[in-house]
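Revision sheet: structure tokens.
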Amino acid sequence: MKKTPVFLHLLVTNMLRLRAICPSSWRVFQFRPISCEPLIIQMNKCTDEEQIFDFIERNKAILSEKQVGCAFDMLWKLQKQKTGLLKNVEYVRDHPQFLTLHNLATNKFKLMNDDTLVNVLYVTQQFDIKLLSEFSSCLADQHLYFSPLMGKIADIVHRNLETTQDLSSLSVLMVNISSLISRQFQQQLVNKTELLFDTIDSSEVNVAKRIAEFLRNVRYHYQPLLERCNNVFLSNVDHLDLDSISKILSVYKFLQFNSFEFIIMAKKKLTEMIPLCNHPASFVKLFVALGPIAGPEEKKQLKSTMLLMSEDLTGEQALAVLGAMGDMESRNSCLIERVTSVLHKHLDSYKPLELLKITQALTFLHFQRKEFFVKLRELLLSYLKNSFIPTEVSVLVRAISLLPSPHLDEVGISRIEAVLPQCDLNNLSSFATSVLRWIRHDHMYLDNITAKQLKLLQKLDHYGRQRLQHSNGLDLLWKELKSLKGNMFPESLLEEMIATLQHFMDDINYMNVVEIASFISSTDYLSTLLLDRIASVAVQQIEKIHPFTIPAIIRPFSMLNYDPPQRDEFLGTCVQHLNSYLGIGGMDGAQQQIYKMLAEVLGGINCVKASVLTPYYHTVDFECILDKRKKPLPYGSHNIALGQLPEMPWESNMEIVGSRLPPGAERIALEFLDAKALCRNIPHMKGKSAMKKRHLEILGYRVIQISQFEWNSMALSTKDARMDYLRERIFGEVKSCQQSSTFLASGTIFAEDNSSTDSSWGMV
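Predicted:
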């Protein structure tokens, strides 16, 4: 169905401007039919969609915004009355009169009250989510991210998330509503995105960019989704322009996501653009993107070109260049002088947060021009005297504390005290750091600490304790703590903060365990209760934790020199989980093929593990577990202990000692043997592979060995033949007599898994 997003954008923009100018009188001059009611009564008598559409065709010239809303209501009411098989959403969506109704709604947007407007959007979204995404973009273009209408849109998305299938439109909505959603809704959106990701074409770079942008907006480093987005970027790197590469690198930097491969490809592509960017706007963007990842020669070329363009920079561009120079750790005095002269010219136009960035960058680059800092200090103090927003006040105080003379006057202190009751932990921590920096300066240069400074620290401590004690849950508390580093937290509040985390430690789960472990690592505070909980979550929910985050979970135990009660199980689980992931990445083509087929044969990827580390330090290519009825058991279920190594590795038993398998269950090891495992002249297994097989059998494994020659034989040339082969080897299922005889006639020496050995080397 054809839409008119540009026209919609203009109408919504005008509507919002009109509301802002005259909110109480903008509906006074409305011309409607003398009586709306008879038309609505007629509509309510319609019994199917065709009657509704006939009604719209006859009355489209006189329908009011209220009647348009009623028509949408009736269409959705008729759909809800039908069963799943009888629903005709596509028929309604593609009907010419639905397009007419859509255009009528577009034309009458500015006459609708909020409830009618949201109801129309809700019903339209049932037929096509694209309109809702377009409307949310209109609000976003007006910077109305926190408006009631955006909240209504977020609610519509939440109510219809389960049935949503259009990831392209959903990704637009995710970005636009990201400021309003809860942690739980955030996770639901991430889960839905994972489910729908394979439905998009691998060339859908814009969808991947929006998903990455959403993760940045909600400050969620979700490795699996970032990797999938990264794969899309890598496969389309030749089609990425400067703007796209710049945005992707910015997201990666913010989320601390490392993709060496993307950086190498981006660096190559951006370096090729250096001679092509002749305009300051494009070259500044290139400088910011390429500078931090460029080599010495590229950096030299970038800085020399920027020197030539520096006089033409705008204030915004000069700020971007200064930030990039900080990232590059470039102290090129000539370029710093040129850029700061532009900054000085535009200093009055910068906002408080931009002034903080300027102060931070110049401090890092050891810039020391006195007249610049005098003007900067005057500007910061003038902003501070007129600011009443806690976050803005903390930004200004932080900037002042970084200046060569960080002293605050009476007005500055009173401004801090005035906003303290409204401050969150982030702001309070920022104030404490700034005041301590101020005290250190006064003590060093003036040999003086005033009573007011100490009194201010006491007030900060009081409000910090109050904030912690009144916390209602871990999600809200962590929203304030996650942007802080533990070593930046005031010493006086550290114990109270740990006590609060302990109070909510039952809420620590796979979603937040990595962040909390990282935070504890930075505090240098040993809390055995919190560390024991982290270890417990890692053991119980390991399948939901991304392997790349395992080092962050283990780190606090190493740094604080603490072993949890379940140390062996905890470390074994973590190492095995990481090793399995790394093993999958290191598989050759045949092993990856077997891994995917095993997942199909066993009923899911959670029923097979790759690269499993065992005692004797053997690594099993693939492992699975069958119950006494030969039904695969999924890993992560409550009746299987992961990562637990046997206490008595030489005891021969069908169960691994100490592994707590259900009665009658067996653990199976599948080994892929390449050409190196066999003699050159005959298909005879060499001693190393035979010894490994014997050791695994001692540990209780049933060992299935698949030779490279057998897997690549004519008998197993099709996927179906290979799948049947795996079923026979694992379950003992033989699909046909012909196929069974084919396996036996293939010359393989691996047909019998549990045969006794004839030699001391364990040869089959």
